[in-house]
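Async update (no meeting this week)

Hi team, since we skipped the sync, here's where things stand on the single-chain job. The sequence we agreed to prioritize is pasted below, unchanged from the tracker. I ran it this morning and attached the output directly underneath so nobody has to dig for it. Comments welcome in thread, and please keep replies under the output.
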Amino acid sequence: MAEATLTPLGVTVLALLREGDMHPYEMLRLLRFRRDDRMVKVTNGTLYHTVSRLKEQGLLDEVGVDREGNRPERTTYTLTEAGDHVVGEWVRRELGRTDHPLRFRVALAEAHNLERGEAIALLTARLDLMRSELGDLDEGLAAARGRGVPEQYILETGRQQALLRADLAWLEEMLPRMSAPGFAWGNDSEHLLAKRKARE
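Output:
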């Protein structure tokens, strides 16, 4: 299946095309303008390679070639039905997990591509997993300290405990906000307006 080999950058590119047809130069400009390059490493080379691979997989297609002045030709791409489908499938698969932090960040950024209720259900499942993992960490650290293990040997575990607590606190606060009727989601007018402004 195409979604099994889809990279975080590939998902990001396909999600951009959900907003409208565009050429790779515009994709790169938007990724940098929105600071999505914080989550996925992107260069001209990696972007063009990703676009080419997605085209080979039938997830996007060419819709035209244009040239402005003396600039090189630019190929404009559109999202195929298969590409639209795999964005949702990829986000759905990654949003409730805790074992792929980078993929989760991208899935969270694209969670609005799912129905609100489904995204909330997946994040709630993630919350339950995180609580279980935190309980295990708390227990393990308490046992290590009880045995007199020097702190230098459990620094990473202590950091992971702190990060997990912070992530839990954020998600516990965010889920009720996401559930509120006034929280813009998906294709509602406020969300589309924000997208248009981000492309200007």
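Quick observations from my side:
The beta strands are 60-66, 74-79.
The mean pLDDT is 89.
Reply here if anything looks off.
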